[in-house]
Specification:
The protein has 173 residues and is α+β, with helices and mostly antiparallel strands. The protein contains five helices and six strands, in the order αββαββαββαα.
Length: 173
């Protein structure tokens, strides 16, 4: 369940809030050297200003490939090549775009909740299996079921806290 929360938080970090953040572009796939690589493997990504990302390739020969990867990605930012670096200017978010991003956050959160509940189901099935194999008593099974539900409730509440934080971040910038 912790990994589910971590994955959700990573997905949230990639949602543009109007501020420049390297996580916005670091996992973009770029076709270079005959294979698909993540942008963070090919370049240094910095944010010298609040609305600007600078991508400095480790090897200048992949500059065009990085530009193409950014254009093909879903970030919606047009890269500008300036010498041996690429600049990404992060535009202000419109109110409509902010609401769309809030909906996206909601969808990601619901996916996380479903995965958490699936983990709960798997844990309950494992506990019942152990009880059938006489490795757990009936009382221990009931105790485990309550504990699993308590843990599940905690993680679902964590999802909601992170969603509220991200929504506030999106709507108040």
């Amino acid at each position: 369940m912790e990994k589910i929360i971590e994955f959700m938080m990573h997905e949230f970090a990639a949602i543009r809030t109007g501020k420049a953040s390297p996580t916005l572009v670091e996992s973009i796939d770029v076709h270079a050297y005959g294979s698909s690589m993540k942008l963070k493997q090919l370049a240094l990504i910095t944010s010298p200003e609040s609305r600007v990302l600078v991508i400095q390739p480790f090897d200048a020969s992949v500059l065009k490939e990085i530009e193409k990867g950014i254009l093909e990605s879903k970030v919606g930012i047009t890269p500008v090549i300036e010498g041996k670096v690429i600049r990404l200017r992060i535009p202000e978010l419109s109110e409509e775009r902010r609401k769309d991003l809030v909906k996206t956050v909601g969808k990601l959160a619901e996916e996380a909740r479903v995965k958490i509940r699936s983990s709960r189901r798997e844990a309950l099935e494992e506990a019942k299996k152990r009880q059938k194999e006489s490795l757990l008593t009936e009382d221990e099974l009931v105790r485990f079921e309550k504990e699993i539900q308590k843990i599940t409730d905690k993680f679902v509440a964590d999802v909601q806290v992170h969603v509220q934080h991200k929504e506030t971040e999106l709507l108040t910038i």
